[in-house]
Amino acid sequence: MRTSLSSKGQSKVIGIVIVIIAIFIGAIAILYTFYITEPPTLTELEDPEGDAGFIGDPGIIDITSAKMEVNEEELKITINVRESVPEHLNDGEYAQWLAMVIILQEGEIRAYEVYMEMNSTTGQGELVGYFRELGEQEESCTVEYDGNSLTIFAPLEELQSAKEIQYYIEAAFEEWSGDELLTYGIDYAPDEGFQSFQPQMNDEV
Ligand SMILES: [Ca+2]
Questions:
Q1: How far is the CA of 132 from the centre of ligand 1 (A)?
Q2: CA of 187 to the centre of ligand 1 (A)
Q3: Ligand 1: distance of its center to the CA of 79 in Å?
Q4: pLDDT tens-digit profile of 52-88?
Q5: Which residues of 188-198 are buried (b: 16+ CB within 10 A; e: fewer)?
Q6: pLDDT confidence band for 193 (50 / 70 / 90)
């Protein structure tokens, strides 16, 4: 009887060890998939405060930092600005936060504008998002905003075969009274021009 119990106990221990090893291997497989075969990629930039050229003080277009993230066929762009963006602009005001995105593929270059805008000159002044390949019709896409942080999600299938992505950010503000332009401002980030990164840099691993 004692031998039988001992044998059962041994089986139990072996069973538990097998389960632990299986969990361990599973965890490694998940981590490998997440970090090695499909790495989330991002690139960030910072921009000085108070460097936007304008009359008045529309801090909502003074870029302080930005971040690009590629998740398969989706480009996520987050733009942070100096002052909190209101839910609506006042009548006659227009603001735009734009990323110029160049996707370099094997033997081909594609250029896109991905942008958010608030337009109280012709619209309701709420935040909306668009993307378009240069020369093509714009399409709307998802945006999110939280205080002084704006995020846009652009579906760009060319990202799948991108060898390199180049981009820069610009934000602009206008205030109109009828046909008269009262205020105008613009900020570029980064000041040194296009940034570049390789979204599939781990392919060679
Ligand atoms: Ca700035």
A1: 25
A2: 6
A3: 11
A4: 876 666 899 999 999 999 998 999 999 999 999 999 8
A5: bbbeeeebebe
A6: confident
Q: 12: helix, coil or strand?
A: helix
Which pLDDT score, from 0 to 100, does residue 9 have? 58
Tokens at 27, concatenated: 């965890």
Buried b or exposed e, range 147-175, using 16+ CB within 10 angstroms: ebbbbbbbebebbeebeebbbbbbbbbbb
If you measure from the C-alpha of residue 39 to the centroid of ligand 1, how many angstroms do you get, rounded to a whole number? 30
This prediction has a pTM of 0.77
Distance (Å, whole) CA 106 – CA 200 = 13
Give 190 Cα–ligand 1 centroid separation in angstroms: 8
What pLDDT does 42 receive? 72
Looking at every residue in the chain, the average pLDDT score rounds to 83
Residue 123 Cα to ligand 1 middle (Å): 27
From the CA of 31, how far away is ligand 1's center (Å)? 37
Interval between CA 109 and ligand 1 midpoint (Å): 29
CA nearest 197: which of 29, 41, 3, 81? 41
> What is the bridge-based pairing of β-strands 164-177 and 180-189?
antiparallel
- Record the tokens describing residue 205, joined without a space: 């691993």
Each residue's pLDDT tens digit, 132-181: 999 999 999 999 999 999 999 999 999 988 999 999 999 999 999 999 99
